[in-house]
From TrEMBL:
Domain remarks: The BAR domain mediates homodimerization, it can neither bind membrane nor impart curvature, but instead requires the neighboring PH domain to achieve these functions.
Cell compartment(s), UniProt: Cell membrane; Endosome membrane
Domain called Arf-GAP: residue spans: 403-525
Natural source organism: Seriola lalandi dorsalis
ANK repeat positions: 666-698, 699-731
Segments of skewed composition (Polar residues): 563-581, 796-805
Function noted in UniProt: GTPase-activating protein for the ADP ribosylation factor family.
Name of the protein described by the UniProt record: Arf-GAP with coiled-coil, ANK repeat and PH domain-containing protein
Gene Ontology, cellular component aspect: endosome membrane; plasma membrane
GO MF term (any one): zinc ion binding
Domain annotation PH: ranges: 270-365
Length: 805
C-alpha cells in the first residue's frame, strides 16, 4: 500500500495535512497490530506443534484479516486471499513447516515491526511535541499586547524558533511516513512469499493443490523484484525532494508567516484563499479561537477540523465590507461587516492581515463583475438572518417576512422596478425613503450612510407592521415625483439596468445627497402648501362628528382671533372658534381617505377617563396662525399633523429639519404634531428619519407625554420601543405613568409599567443582558399588532366627557 504525504502540504500544516497524518497514523497502528498478531500466531504454531491444527486455523484467519485491512492495495488483498484459501485445504499437511516459518515469518516481520515501526513512533512523538510547542507559541504571539514591546519581541522570537524546528521535524516525519509506506509492501509480500515456497518444498503431498497456486506465486515473484526496485527508486526520489524542499524553506522568510498566501480566483478547488486566523466569538466573553478560514464560492467560511462541515461567516461577499481594526488591544485585527452581523478576526502578522483584506476586497469586486443571474438568485433566496437596521435591543416581532412583505410592498404603484435604475423585481428597500431597490442600488444606498438611506431586505429581514404600512404609504412613484422633479428639465439621464456601477452611484448621490433634481418651491407656493395642510387638518376634524369632543384646556390662553373681553371671535384664516370661557373647538384625530390607512384611523380616538376622575391636562389644540416666516420645517410640521406622508417626504427633500421646533407654538416638533394627528405610520416615518423621541415642548412634554394624554396606545407602544424616556416629568412634575394612572387607562399603564420593569431587570442582569423579560416582549408584540392591524381592540372606553352626569 502506498499513501504519499506531500512535502509542500506539510509546511502549510493545513487541515488536509492533519487529516492525512491522522489517517496514516491509524493505518500504521492497525498494520502493527495485524503484523504483531501474525508473528505471535506463528510463534504459537511453532511452540505448540501438537495443537498445530487449531493454531494453523487461527493463522489462516490472521492472513484473511490482513487481506481485509489491505483492501486499498489490490495486489496484497487478492494474493493473501488466495493464499488463505489454499492453506485452509493444506492444514493437515503442515507438520514440518515450523523451521522455515521461524526464518521467513517470525524473524523477518519482527525485524520490520521493531526497526521500521519503532522509528516511525519516535518520529511521531517528536512531531506531536513540536506541534504543541508551535501552537503554544502562536497563541502567545497572538496574545502579546501591542503596547508591551518586550513581550512582543519575546513572543516573536519564540515563534520564529519554534517554526524553524517544526519545519525540520515535520519534513523528517513525512519522509519517515513515505519510506515506511513504500517498504511495507515489499516486506510483507517477501515474507509471505518465502513462507509459501516453504510449503511447496516441504509438503510434496500438497503438490496438487499448489500446482494451481504456483502460477500466481511465480507472477508475484517477478513483481516482487520490480517492487523492490521501484521502492528503492521512490525512496531516492523522496529523499531528493525532501532535500530540495528543505533548502527552499531555508531561503524563505518565515519569521511571521506560515506560508505565502495569494488570492487565486481561478483555483481548481474553488478556494480563492485559505489559512489560519483567530476569530473572536460572539458570546458574552468574546473569546478568541484559531480556525482555518477560506474564501470559496463567494463565501467566507471556517472550520475547526478538516472533517468538520465548514461554517459560513458571510453568505455573499457582495453584501459586506472589510476594514482594519485598530481600536482593540490585539494586533493585526480586521473586521468583515455584513448587513446582519460582523466578524472580528486576527491574522498572525501585518503582512497576512493585508493579504486577507485584499483577498476579501478582490472577492467582492469579482463577485460584482461576474454576478450575472446570481444577483437575482441572491435576492430570491431566504435566510434565517432577520437583523433589523434600526431596532437594536427591541424584542423580536412576530412580523411579516419573505414573500408576504414582498408581495405587499411590490403591489404599490412603481415598486415593481428599482426606484433608481428600473431593474425589475427588486428585493431590497430603503425604509426611511419608502422605496424599493435592486441589489446593486441597495449596496450604493448602504454606502451613503443611514442618515441618508436605511436599507433592508424584503425577503431576508422581518418587517414590523408599522414599517410595512409606511412602505405602502409612499412608494417609488411618490418619491420619484419629489426627487426627480427637475431631472428631465436638467437633461440628466436616469440609469438603466446593467449600467456601470460608478455611473449609477454618481446618479444616486446626485439624487439623494445633493438633491440636484428636487424642485425648490417659491415662497408663495410654500405658503399655499402650509395653509392647505392646516385646512386639510380642519376638514379631517369636521368630518368626525361621530366622535365625542375632547376636553377643553383648564386655563385658556389669549391668541390672535380672540379679544380680551371674552367675546367669541372667528378667525378668517383658521376657521377655529374661541368662546368666552376660553374653550376652543378641538380638532378630532380622524384619517383622510388618501393619506391614512383604516388601521391608523381607528386608533385616533383618545383613551377614555371615567366620569368620577378629573381629566388629565389635555394636549393643546391644533390651531393655525399666520407665522412670521414660511419654511420647509413648517410644512413638515403641519404635514405631520395632517398625516400626509408625501408632503412630509417633500418637506424633508426641501431641507426640512426633522426635529424642527415651532417657537410660535410652544416649541412643538413635527413628531408631537404627528401624535396630535393620531397616525402611527406618520410617527414611524419621522422616527425612521432620525426624529428625537424625547424632545420636549415648553410644557416639558415629549411625544410620549402627548400620546399618553390623548390615549393613543399604539403610539405609546411605538415610542417605548424606540427608547422614549418614560421617567421624564413635565413642568407639573407629571410623568407619562402618572398621567395614565389619573386617566385610568389600563392599557397604557400596563405598557409603561412593563417597560419600567424590563428596564430594571436588564440593569440588574448586568452589561451582558440583551433580551430582557419574555413577558414584556410578548405583550409588546400583541400591542404592536393590534395597533397596526386591529386597533379597534385598543378603543375600549368612551372618551371622557366633562358634561356627562
Amino acid at each position: 500500500m502506498k499513501i504519499t504525504v506531500d512535502f509542500e502540504e506539510c509546511l502549510k500544516d493545513s487541515p488536509r495535512f492533519r487529516a492525512t497524518i491522522e489517517e496514516v497514523e491509524g493505518d500504521v497502528c492497525e498494520l502493527e497490530s495485524k503484523l504483531d498478531k501474525l508473528v505471535k500466531l506463528c510463534i504459537g504454531m511453532i511452540d505448540a506443534g501438537k495443537a498445530y491444527n487449531a493454531a494453523n486455523k487461527q493463522f489462516v484467519n490472521g492472513i484473511r484479516e490482513l487481506a481485509q485491512q489491505s483492501t486499498r492495495d489490490e495486489v496484497i488483498e487478492s494474493s493473501l486471499t488466495k493464499f488463505a484459501e489454499s492453506l485452509q485445504e493444506m492444514i493437515n499437511y503442515h507438520t514440518i513447516l515450523f523451521d522455515q516459518a521461524q526464518r521467513s515469518i517470525k524473524t523477518q516481520l519482527q525485524t520490520f515491526v521493531k526497526d521500521d515501526l519503532r522509528k516511525f513512533k519516535e518520529a511521531k512523538k517528536q512531531f506531536d511535541k513540536v506541534s504543541e510547542e508551535k501552537e503554544a507559541a502562536l497563541i502567545k504571539n497572538a496574545q502579546a499586547p501591542r503596547n508591551k514591546q518586550h513581550e512582543v519581541e519575546e513572543a516573536t522570537n519564540i515563534l520564529t524558533a519554534t517554526r524553524k524546528c517544526f519545519r525540520h521535524i515535520v519534513l523528517d516525519y513525512v519522509l519517515q511516513i513515505n519510506v515506511l509506506q513504500s517498504k511495507r509492501r515489499s516486506e510483507i509480500l517477501k515474507s509471505m512469499l518465502s513462507f509459501m515456497y516453504a510449503h511447496l518444498t516441504f509438503f510434496h503431498q500438497g503438490y496438487d493443490l499448489f500446482s494451481e497456486l504456483q502460477p500466481l506465486m511465480k507472477q508475484l515473484g517477478g513483481q516482487l523484484d520490480q517492487l523492490v526496485v521501484d521502492a528503492a527508486k521512490e525512496k531516492r526520489d523522496m529523499e531528493q525532494k525532501h532535500s530540495t524542499i528543505q533548502q527552499k524553506a531555508a531561503l524563505q522568510d518565515f519569521s511571521h508567516d506560515d506560508t505565502k498566501l495569494e488570492y487565486n480566483v481561478d483555483a481548481d478547488n474553488g478556494i480563492a484563499m485559505e489559512g489560519y486566523l483567530f476569530k473572536r466569538a460572539s458570546n458574552a466573553f468574546k473569546t478568541w479561537n484559531r480556525r482555518w478560514f477560506s474564501i470559496q464560492n463567494n463565501q467566507l467560511v471556517y472550520q475547526k477540523k478538516f472533517k468538520d462541515n465548514p461554517t459560513v461567516v458571510v453568505e455573499d461577499l457582495r453584501l459586506c465590507t472589510v476594514k482594519h481594526c485598530e481600536d482593540i488591544e490585539r494586533r493585526f485585527c480586521f473586521e468583515v461587516v455584513s448587513p446582519t452581523k460582523s466578524c472580528m478576526m486576527q491574522a498572525d502578522s501585518e503582512k497576512l492581515r493585508q493579504a486577507w483584506i485584499k483577498a476579501v476586497q478582490n472577492s467582492i469586486a469579482t463577485a460584482f463583475r461576474d454576478k450575472g443571474d446570481d444577483g437575482e438568485k441572491l435576492d430570491r433566496k431566504s435566510s434565517t438572518s432577520t437583523g433589523s437596521l434600526d431596532s437594536s435591543g427591541e424584542p423580536k416581532e412576530r412580523s411579516l417576512k419573505g414573500e408576504s412583505a414582498l408581495q405587499k410592498v411590490l403591489a404599490i404603484p412603481g415598486n415593481a422596478c428599482c426606484c433608481d435604475c428600473g431593474q425589475p423585481d427588486p428585493r431590497w428597500a430603503s425604509i426611511n425613503l419608502g422605496i424599493t431597490l435592486c441589489i446593486q442600488c441597495s449596496g450604493i444606498h448602504r454606502s451613503l450612510g443611514v442618515h441618508f438611506s436605511k436599507v433592508r431586505s424584503l425577503t431576508l429581514d422581518t418587517w414590523e407592521p408599522e414599517l410595512l404600512k409606511l412602505m405602502c404609504e409612499l412608494g417609488n412613484k411618490v418619491i420619484n415625483e419629489i426627487y426627480e422633479a427637475r431631472r428631465e428639465e436638467l437633461g440628466a439621464r436616469k440609469p438603466q439596468p446593467g449600467d456601470p456601477r460608478h455611473e449609477v452611484e454618481a446618479y444616486i448621490k446626485a439624487k439623494y445627497v445633493d438633491r440636484r433634481f428636487v424642485r425648490r418651491p417659491s415662497d408663495e407656493e410654500l405658503r399655499n402648501k402650509v395653509v392647505t395642510l392646516s385646512k386639510q387638518e380642519k376638514r379631517l376634524s369636521s368630518s368626525s362628528e361621530h366622535l365625542p369632543p375632547r376636553p377643553p384646556p383648564p386655563t385658556p390662553k389669549l391668541r390672535p382671533g380672540s379679544n380680551a373681553s371674552g367675546q367669541t371671535v372667528k378667525s378668517a384664516d383658521s376657521g377655529i372658534q374661541n368662546s368666552a370661557d376660553g374653550s376652543r373647538e378641538m380638532l378630532a384625530n380622524t384619517p383622510s381617505n388618501n393619506s391614512l390607512t383604516d388601521a391608523d384611523a381607528a386608533e385616533s380616538p383618545p383613551m377614555p377617563m371615567p366620569a368620577t376622575l378629573p381629566p388629565p391636562s389635555p394636549c393643546k389644540e391644533m390651531v393655525f396662525y399666520e407665522p412670521k416666516e414660511y419654511s420647509p420645517g413648517l410644512q413638515l410640521y403641519w404635514a405631520s399633523c395632517a398625516r400626509s406622508l408625501p408632503d412630509m417626504a417633500e418637506a424633508l427633500a426641501h431641507g426640512a429639519e426633522v426635529n424642527w421646533v415651532n417657537t410660535e407654538d410652544d416649541k412643538r416638533t413635527p413628531l408631537i404634531m404627528a401624535v396630535q394627528g393620531g397616525s402611527l405610520v406618520t410617527c414611524e416615518f419621522l422616527l425612521q428619519n432620525a426624529a428625537n423621541v424625547n424632545q420636549q415642548d415648553t410644557q416639558g412634554r415629549g411625544p410620549l407625554h402627548h400620546a399618553t394624554m390623548l390615549g393613543h396606545t399604539g403610539q405609546v407602544c411605538l415610542f417605548l420601543k424606540r427608547g422614549a424616556n418614560q421617567n421624564a416629568a413635565d413642568i407639573d412634575e407629571k410623568t407619562p405613568l402618572a398621567i395614565a394612572v389619573e386617566a385610568a387607562n389600563a392599557d397604557i399603564v400596563t405598557l409603561l409599567r412593563l417597560a419600567k420593569m424590563n428596564e430594571e431587570m436588564r440593569e440588574a442582569e448586568g452589561p451582558y443582558s440583551q433580551s430582557g423579560d419574555e413577558t414584556y416582549q410578548d405583550i409588546f408584540q400583541d400591542f404592536t399588532h393590534m395597533a397596526s392591524n386591529d386597533p379597534d381592540k385598543l378603543n375600549r372606553y368612551q372618551q371622557y366627557d366633562p358634561q356627562r352626569p
